[in-house]
Design a protein that fits this description.
- With 120 residues, this protein is α/β, with parallel strands linked by helices.
- It has a single domain, classed as Flavodoxin domain (Rossmann fold).
- 38% of the residues lie in helices and 16% in strands.
- The chain has four helices and four strands.
- Strands 1, 2, 3 and 4 form a four-stranded parallel β-sheet that branches.
- The radius of gyration is 15 Å and the shape is globular.
- Bound molecules: flavin mononucleotide (FMN).
Length: 120
């Protein structure tokens, strides 16, 4: 995690992408968030310097509002750590390998969002 933390602390933005597993981020993504603890100082102020945080989720559930309260909760956690959170990108109805074809604009949407992060 140390090299990743170095990257986070010296970056302008972080993009976290995770499928939804059992209404949550994957265990691997959760482990990453757990290990972000050192960005907080002992008084809970942050070592971060305005890094933006874009989260991208895929899910089987076609209704992309289904887990919105959870995504908001995750964003609040990132804001507490000192990130400037952006509205998550969510792609639903993805159960089989070709289902991404249902979202012909997905890659462009992600590219645009990342370009927006890089522009500032
Ligand atoms: C173990 C597991 C749990 C899942 N839980 C959910 C869920 O709670 N809600 C949902 O909408 N989709 C759920 N899905 C579907 C995945 O979010 C969806 O298929 C995703 O695109 C899979 O990405 P992956 O191929 O990178 O694992 C689950 C899939 C797996 C394998």
């Amino acid at each position: 995690m140390n090299p990743i933390l170095d990257d986070v602390l010296t970056s302008n933005a972080v993009v976290l992408a995770s499928p939804v597993y059992m209404w949550q981020v994957t265990a691997q993504a959760k482990l990453f968030t757990d290990r972000l603890m050192p960005v907080l100082k002992p008084d809970y102020s942050s070592w971060l310097t305005g890094q933006k945080l874009l989260s991208i989720y895929t899910q089987g559930q076609p209704d992309i509002s289904k887990f919105a309260p959870y995504f908001e909760h995750v964003n609040q956690m990132f804001a507490f750590l000192g990130f400037r959170t952006l509205a998550p990108l969510v792609f639903g109805g993805l159960r089989n390998i070709d289902d991404i074809q249902k979202h012909p604009a997905a890659f462009e949407q992600v590219q645009q969002a990342v370009n927006g992060l890089l522009a500032e």
